[in-house]
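Predict structure. Chain length: 360.
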Amino acid sequence: MELLVTECLGKPLRLEGSMAGWQQLYWDNQLVAQQAASSDDNETHSHQFQLQSGEQQIDCQLQVNLQWQPFLISYQLLIDDQVIGTGERNTADIEMQTPVVKPVVKQKFSLVGLASLGFKLLKSAKAVKVLFAGASLAAYSWLFSFEFALALIGCLVFHEYGHIRAMKYFKMPTKGIYLIPFLGGLAMSDSKINTRWQDVVISIMGPTFGLLLSVLALFAYWLTELPFFAALASFNALLNLFNLLPILPLDGGHILKSISFSFNSKVGIALCALAAALGIYLSFTFHLSLLAIMLLIGSAEILFEWRSRHFTHLLPLDRYGQIFSTLWYLATVGLLLAVIFIVASSDDPMLSLPLKILNS
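Prediction complete.
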């Protein structure tokens, strides 16, 4: 990942590094110094290099003090033993940065990759949004009713808008919301995340917005006593609760991945594998074919995460971030469950259906 970018003799000086320990220093995109990974825990690093200015050789040195949790990097740039630049960067700076050189992702042949490529080609046309939305409305109307289909699509859009708001908070360009028949929705962005915290916030903001919608519908039910609002609150809560299952590629799986891989890669792969096993059990027990398909995608994501663990550019969560993310996740799950239980306490058997689904 890019640790810092500063100016040296009128051209950009860029330091890249990894938690594995290696660091590489580039001047005008030319490698001028590097340090291999080592078991030395020393947080101070010194990069010495020479630059050519006409016929004169200039001695340069970049002194770096780096800590990963919480992330903080401070530096001094010296030319001929004279300090010409100092500065520091923290987690917020990494979250908001746009990398000078985007991380290179090795493209491999896979069915998942082909599906992703096909979708990227399709989504280039704005009309596809309308097409997918119409197909989703028709599909859900066929399964339920037109009125319920409209309400369901409204819930999906509100959920995905939570993801969009989080992306915009991190100044990531967005491409809008796509409704996919029988699969739900998808919030699209062109940018890659830089930190695990960004992954947590973007993932959990969808269910958080879903919780807000359920609470608003619950208040509307108490004011009007119309069963429609109670049903909307309960079924929307169930929809978001399912999305918080700690299984990739669901939002809950992304939250689990970010928290667990912030400890270390072994903890991450162990917890994600256990969650995948839970998903397999649920899919076979309740004959959930859709969940089984999701598990295939999620298993590929776990594998890619493990294989790229030494080269990841994602800044991990610190201890505070891990605790806060866990509490946010548990609070969201608890409040969604509370909405379902409150609605199920009414006399209408239809309103208790989400609770019966959970009890099953």
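Summary: The two ends are 46 Å apart (CA to CA).
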